[in-house]
Design goal:
about 400 residues, three-stranded antiparallel sheet, alpha/beta, homodimer, 13 helices, eight-stranded mixed sheet
Chain lengths: ~400, ~400
């Protein structure tokens, strides 16, 4: 290479940014990817460079199903996409349209909300507690009429190690929410990109695997290698009803462009086949565990008044600072000076209000922030919390409540 | 690799398929891609595996602009996409919505039409002659009301070496069509994936480059390396107004997933930097030239009654067989037995009606077929035309008109 590659995020020198949701540079296995690329290009199969099979190479889907499918190993229920974000957009294009409604938890992953709005969908949100969205409000939102004549076409959840909350749905709650979607014929997108990153045991089952048995088949589960292997490869998948996946494969985009990422999917295929990807996932989980522990310990030590549900996986802690409005975006009204104090102490967090669809549904989000332990090592996480605590104290003193 | 890779298209043994729009296996430079992948992964920059810059790496965009931009080398007017098909879909998502209208030439690239329908757009088509769509009908279609309250949001053209017609818009006609779009505030998508494949001289200028000078700025030109380097890398671009490209970069899909294909874009970057891609393009043009010549000669020899505008670039000849309905899809009504005769003679062509949006606008399409010279070598093209001629004769004799 003759130049440094520009990545999506950059943090100014001296600042610690816990808003970043991208993986730690330490997680990215450049050597393994180099070896895999060399191996797949070594045997002269030029089909590697040709338009790919629309749903993804069958052998790769089979291996994905065997690796991530749990009890559901049918490759016809797997479809390869360039990451979970592209999967989400593809589903919005094919299974919804401008003016339709989408039901989400409040708070929700903010860039999923942005994607829904890009597609002209009307977002309706449901209040959540530490166990996930309220089932009664969820069922009611699915059936409420959509102004303008659209219909509720989709629902969206991050069921495992949620973004931003870190929380995993209890299986009973998950079953209720899924059944309500099935009852009303609404496809449920389960964004499960953090699911493999269980830190205290096995990953929870995929909502798609749980949904495969009954005839309902409404869950489209999204997965990705971005959080433990490499975002730049753009390899993810949809796991769900074969009928829906056939519709996606028959879309103009797929029929015209072929498979969405044949070359990088072949690299990930090779990394899974050789066991390098699984080894990587194991190492990333161990490293995330020590980062998570360091963050939790620092929060308990430095911010004893703060509350959070301890994360059992994924990247995030969803922290509340009672009486201090750390959740308000800078410039978005009175924040008691927290944003300014954070900047002065050179620490960045993702303000809670960023993840809110409707402030009435998430009344405590103004006192919350999403802290990522995915990007920074333990000692930097501890230092970030020291700075965060100083900023919180400074603004609490400046505007006593 | 432990298995053969499944590509999008497969042709049964013994059949010659001129419907295929994928490049010849001979065009695909596996060695060059292997070397480029080795070089980009050699220097330990882990940013190569991280979320990429949303519009694509700035240095890569600069090189794209310098290589394919002609007079318009401003990198802010370039945006990297996973091929032209994904670019088309992204534009439909961000700049149109269900119920809006899209104006196209008739005939048009059938999978673009399918993509528009996937997005819920209403396709309205304009009759075309050998010089492209009729300018008056084009202007009228741009302003006709859209039933249901939508607006004409987009127009779509393949201005250079068109798909399916092989024809290139005269610059005067192109200017008229572009100006009409500018006048009515309709974005014009110029699908220019075949533009670099000029066979008898320099490529025609991009509609986006022609559009860069005046204030109008309505052209979004699509490019790709799929037709001369590799479809599987999924690397293409949008060349157009910086303001529109900033909107795309700010979409949920991009903000969430980062750049759309950072790893394979880095491979293409390296292939352009080293000159391997340009060398490849030069070789592919030479090879396409001899294939095109072989196809034209065979058509003149074997099907003297057939008419076509000689292709000056790209992959396609749009051939008419007067009195013989080669353009009707099998099973789509009386075809005088042509489909059956083609099958018996083991040759496949793309029936003209496949590319028609509204049969009233393209009355001769039932007697036309799109023949690709991109996939097969000269001797196979000649043999295919012998078979085609036999099938045409057989069906003309079976049902004399």
């Amino acid at each position: 290479m003759t130049h440094a590659i520009a990545s999506q995020h950059a943090t100014p020198e001296g600042v610690i940014d816990l808003a970043r949701g991208d993986p730690s540079p330490d997680f990215l296995p450049l050597d393994a990817v180099r070896d895999a690329a060399a191996r797949i290009t070594a045997d002269g199969d030029v089909n590697l460079l040709q338009y790919g099979h629309e749903p993804g190479d069958p052998a790769f889907r089979e291996l994905l199903a065997a690796t991530f499918g749990g009890s559901d190993g049918d490759p016809e229920r797997w479809f390869v996409t360039p990451g979970a974000s592209a999967a989400l957009s593809l589903i919005c294009t094919l299974f919804a349209g401008r003016g339709d409604g989408v039901v989400v938890a409040d708070p929700s992953y903010h860039l999923a909300l942005r994607t829904f709005r890009d597609h002209g969908l009307q977002v309706r949100s449901v209040p959540s507690d530490d166990g996930g969205p309220d089932p009664e409000a969820w069922a009611a939102a699915l059936t409420e009429p959509v102004p303008g004549g659209g219909r509720v076409a989709l629902a969206y959840l991050v069921p495992a190690f949620g973004n931003p909350t870190g929380v995993t749905l209890a299986s009973e709650r998950a079953r209720h929410l899924t059944e309500a979607c099935a009852l009303h014929g609404v496809r449920l997108i389960a964004d499960e990109v953090y699911r493999p990153l269980a830190l205290d045991g096995d990953p929870p089952p995929s909502l798609a695997a749980a949904d495969a048995e009954p005839a309902s088949e409404v869950v489209l589960a999204l997965g990705s290698v971005s959080k433990f292997l490499s975002p730049a490869l753009r390899v993810g998948w949809i796991h769900g009803p074969a009928r829906d996946l056939r519709r996606l494969a028959d879309a103009g985009l797929l029929r015209s462009g072929g498979g969405m990422n044949p070359f990088t999917a072949a690299i990930v295929h090779e990394l899974l086949r050789s066991g390098a990807a699984q080894e990587r996932l194991h190492a990333v989980r161990a490293e995330l565990r020590s980062r998570r522990d360091a963050l939790h310990a620092a929060l308990r030590r430095e911010l004893p008044d703060a509350t959070f549900v301890p994360a059992e996986g994924g990247y995030f802690a969803w922290v509340r600072t009672p009486g201090v409005r750390i959740g308000v975006e800078e410039g978005a009204g009175a924040d008691g000076g927290v944003a300014e104090a954070l900047r002065r102490h050179r620490v960045v967090v993702a303000p809670g209000m960023r993840f809110v669809a409707d402030a009435r549904r998430a009344p405590d989000a103004a006192e919350r922030a999403r802290l990522s332990f995915g990007h920074e090592p333990p000692e930097r996480l501890a230092e970030a919390v020291v700075r965060l605590a100083a900023a919180v104290r400074a603004s609490a003193e400046a505007s006593p409540t």
